[in-house]
Amino acid sequence: MTTSPSPLHSEIGAIFIAVSDIERARDWYCQLLGLPADGEISFGHLYCIPMNNGSNLVLDSKIFPKRTPDDAPLFHFNTADIEASYRYLEELGVELVGPIQHGHWFTFKDPDGNLLMAAKC
């Protein structure tokens, strides 16, 4: 294993929750946390709720109800350079699930097959 600097940050950027109805979930979680539900629903299925520690709670209706540990990550690692992170994991021989998506994120697997994500912050 290499000891070179990693472009991935040692911080969790977001935690994902599979929801059946994105608008209902947005309203419920925002009310639960005492936050306004006035943010944009992205791509018709994602709603990000900023948390105080700098991470986000991401509600995602696209991964419901099929979400299993094999097909959707529960969180992502932050990175400032998504392309460098992709190349770094490629060089390490990490199993990359696909290419960089929308210039912002990609998924990969750990040695046990757990699906993880890196996302540009």
Q: What is the strand and helix layout of this fold?
A:
Layout: E1 8-18, H1 22-33, E2 46-50, E3 56-60, E4 75-79, H2 82-92, E5 95-96, E6 105-109, E7 115-120
Parallel strand pairs: 1-3, 4-7
Antiparallel strand pairs: 1-4, 2-3, 5-6, 6-7
N-to-C SSE string, H for helix and E for strand: EHEEEHEEE
Question: What is the helix fraction of residues, given as a range?
Answer: 10-25%
Ends apart, CA distance between termini: 26 Å
Shape: elongated
Main sheet?
A: 7 strands, mixed
Total E-strand runs? 7
Radius of gyration: 15 Å
Q: pLDDT under 50 segments (min length 5)?
A: none
Structural class: alpha/beta
Helix run count: 2
Strand order of the largest sheet: 2-3-1-4-7-6-5
Instruction: Assess the beta-strand content as a share of residues.
Output: 25-35%
> What average pLDDT do the residues reach?
87
Explain what this protein looks like in three dimensions.
The chain is of the alpha/beta class and 121 residues long. The chain is 19% helix and 32% strand. It contains two helices and seven strands; from the N terminus they run βαβββαβββ. The chain has helices at 22-33, 82-92, and strands at residues 8-18, 46-50, 56-60, 75-79, 95-96, 105-109, 115-120. It has a seven-stranded mixed beta sheet. The radius of gyration is 15 Å and the shape is elongated. The two termini are 26 Å apart. The mean pLDDT is 87.
